[in-house]
Write a structure and sequence with these properties.
Radius of gyration: 21 Å
Strand content: 5-15%
Number of helices: 18
Distance between the termini: 19 Å
Structural class: alpha/beta
Oligomer: single chain
Length: 434
């Protein structure tokens, strides 16, 4: 895996540009396929977001707009809840019913490639279209030098915090913590607060629930401390002080009652939206989940870079929402190409990135769109990008992430000794990797 350094430098440089509120044109080739004499085709599009509040309106507008432009193509949604969609797509393919395209997390790429479903994107998309994407972003979605997922936009893990709760606790809402030590000092004051109806306020949220994305978030926390879960060769790399430091912090947060136990990201978003969580880690697009619960959350939400712990510098991992393409024959592939070229454009994505999913576009021609330049959410966490790092892809990535959550739960709700829990994690993880 190549480093994200070139991506990060480019994105950070783009953030320094001001007064760039114009929407650039795309560099993708002119679409073909319009007209009355085209053979009808249906695209099966696997998309969990159709079931999630705040996203379905956007995706249905994509369907409506695309089908209006290409009246011979119909989009058929294939959907399941977030935690089930990958297995559903794989099981459908096993029964001879393979989808054509999937809206996915970048971490799902090795699983879908290993299942024989994802195909290299350059077998469907044109070289001209792909040339507009940051090369390092494409590298991050690559396996053995081939790009198996097309990133639509990227996000670091960011620290969201509630400015109103900071003020209520006597803290400066314009000075969020930069280190875990500073966070703990603030958390002591924040944890003494209650809501107006008497509910407990949690000081700091880190997801530990048994879902793969929680494992990715835990990996990012390990990076905060300067550690790794996998080395560049995809082998386990946890016999370090930095990895143990991260686990010790997780245990401390639990012992002090700062972190809601066994919480999914959606649980943390709910607590944050209701004013019961002062700080938490999330992808930038997690704000959609917060604002869909409480539209007024925009008035008290601010973001900051990930915290630095131990000897670490606050490094984190970057997540991406991607499009995974599959091969169901030339007619389907051509329709999928037209859909991707329609979807990943400033005309379609600007309002989405501005109002629904704060994130950084993956296309170079979109770096100065209004959604990026004017985003208060992205602004607060902008300096986290130069410290973000990729994680190596292995086929068992989802299972490895689940083992990380098992480790986290063992030392929190299970009360297990950290050294013992890490040894058990190593045994389970090495069995997956080897």
């Amino acid at each position: 895996m190549k480093k994200f350094l070139s991506l990060l430098l480019v994105v950070v440089m783009s953030l320094s540009i001001v007064a760039c509120n114009k929407t650039p044109g795309t560099t993708s080739p002119s679409p073909t396929g319009q007209g009355d004499n085209k053979e009808p085709v249906t695209i099966k599009f696997a998309n969990y977001a159709i079931l999630e509040t705040g996203y379905e309106e956007f995706w249905n507008s994509v369907k409506e707009g695309f089908e209006k432009k290409y009246d011979h193509i119909t989009i058929e949604w294939v959907t399941a809840p977030y935690g089930e969609i990958v297995n559903q797509v794989i099981n459908m393919a096993g029964g001879g019913d393979k989808v054509d395209i999937m809206f996915a997390e970048i971490g799902w790429t090795p699983t879908l490639e290993d299942a024989g479903l994802a195909v290299p994107v350059d077998t469907i998309l044109t070289e001209e279209f792909l040339s507009d994407f940051y090369p390092s972003i494409l590298d991050a979605a690559s396996i053995d030098g081939k790009v198996y997922a097309l990133p639509m936009y990227v996000s670091p893990y960011v620290l969201y915090y509630n400015k109103d709760l900071f003020e209520k606790a006597g803290l400066d809402p314009n000075s969020p913590p930069k280190t875990y030590d500073e966070m703990l000092e603030m958390a002591e004051k924040l944890s003494k607060l209650t809501t107006e109806d008497g509910n407990k306020v949690y000081a700091f949220g880190q997801t530990t629930a048994s879902v793969p994305i929680s494992g990715s978030s835990l990996t990012s926390m390990v990076y905060n401390f300067g550690g790794r879960v996998l080395n560049e060769e995809g082998k386990l790399d946890v016999d370090t002080k930095e990895f143990k430091d991260a686990m010790e912090m997780l245990k401390l947060l639990d012992e002090k009652g700062y972190n809601p136990q066994n919480a999914k990201l959606k649980d943390l978003r709910n607590l944050f939206a209701l004013g019961q969580l002062a700080m938490y880690y999330d992808q930038s697009w997690g704000f959609n989940g917060v604002s869909s619960i409480n539209p007024d959350a925009k008035n008290f939400t601010a973001s900051a870079a990930p915290l630095a712990g131990g000897n670490g510098t606050g490094e984190s991992v970057i997540e991406a929402h991607t499009l995974v393409l599959m091969d169901n024959g030339e007619k389907q592939k051509e329709a999928v190409r037209l859909l991707v070229e329609y979807l990943v454009t400033p005309e379609v994505l600007n309002d989405y990135l501005a109002d629904i999913t704060p994130a950084y576009p993956a296309r170079q021609s979109m770096k100065d769109i209004e959604a990026v330049v004017n985003s208060s959410v992205l602004k607060g966490a902008a300096n986290s990008l130069d410290k973000a790092r990729p994680t190596p892809f292995i086929p068992a990535m989802n299972d490895l992430n689940l083992e990380l959550t098992t480790l986290a739960q063992a030392i929190t709700v299970g009360g297990k000794d950290i050294d013992t829990a890490i040894e058990e994690f190593k045994t389970a993880a090495n069995a997956l990797i080897d």
